[in-house]
């Protein structure tokens, strides 16, 4: 996720952004077992529960520098093996960016029971910047998509597509290559793109905002999950406002005008190529450098992840995708 995405996003509040908050008593004093128990108690009856041990195992296994091709290939082998063990058929999708860069996306699909209902895509990039083991950026998101693959294996009206993008960190190359395929645009009802979902801070003043923010910041604690979508696709954002619970992280949602002159720096994560095609997409994030001091640093390690927040974020995401797969609108 790129450094200035949040500056433009928050300035966009002046131009028609709406914000939705739901409160959460999340606290770092709650242990992982308690979180898992609370998630089980509060989840909707039809929503599967994420497995905390599997999520943390994936996170630990994927937390290593993933910038060189050999390291990205190692990550791909892990992702493909995990998908296969969950009953999915994974497909490598090589791409080239001119003559300079080449990468490999990973794709899997479960066809829905009602093809006319369309498809929902859940994705995350698996590469990291140089020197950073990328625990939050973006192993937390990859682990969440893998867990979604395990628990969202029942038939639903809509098709579920899973995508793991390569080379996000050097210019969104994987997502741009993926969405250029017309077949991936056909009947796509929405994309949920994850980019950093595992870091939280709970002390006053730990969440920062741009100094030009024209309104009083709603909180100075970094204990919320942000969901940013393009206007005209309310079902994507609404699925998240409906999917949190008192025991899960609070959700802040933003619907913004797409590609006005005032948003040049907003299009710096893998949701952007979808927006450019006029497709509905949301970015789900913990706000990156406005909260996490380890962003793009060698210190982005598993020890810095807030495990309770991470597990809760994963459950919110699974809840929202479950709702979207029903195809009610």
General description of the model:
Helices cover 32% and strands 18% of the residues. The protein is of the alpha/beta class and 329 residues long. It has a nine-stranded mixed beta sheet with strand order 1-8-7-9-6-4-5-3-2, sandwiched between helices. The relative contact order is 0.23.
Structural class of the helices, strands and pairings? alpha/beta
Tell me about the largest β-sheet: 9 strands, mixed
Number of H/I helices: 10
Spatial strand sequence of the major β-sheet? 1-8-7-9-6-4-5-3-2
By CATH, the architecture is named 3-Layer(aba) Sandwich
The number of distinct structural domains comes to: 1
Q: Care to give the gist of this entry?
A:
It contains 10 helices and 9 strands. It is α/β, with parallel strands linked by helices and 329 residues long. Helix 5 crosses helix 10 and helix 8 packs across helix 10.
Write the layout of secondary structure elements.
Elements: H1 5-11, E1 18-20, H2 32-42, H3 52-62, H4 69-85, E2 91-97, E3 101-110, E4 119-125, H5 135-151, E5 159-165, H6 173-179, H7 182-185, E6 188-194, E7 224-230, H8 234-241, E8 250-256, H9 272-276, E9 281-285, H10 307-325
Parallel strand pairs: 4-5, 4-6, 6-9, 7-8
Antiparallel strand pairs: 1-8, 2-3, 3-5, 7-9
Helix pairs in contact: 2-10, 3-5, 5-10, 8-10
Quick tags:
single chain, 329 residues, alpha/beta
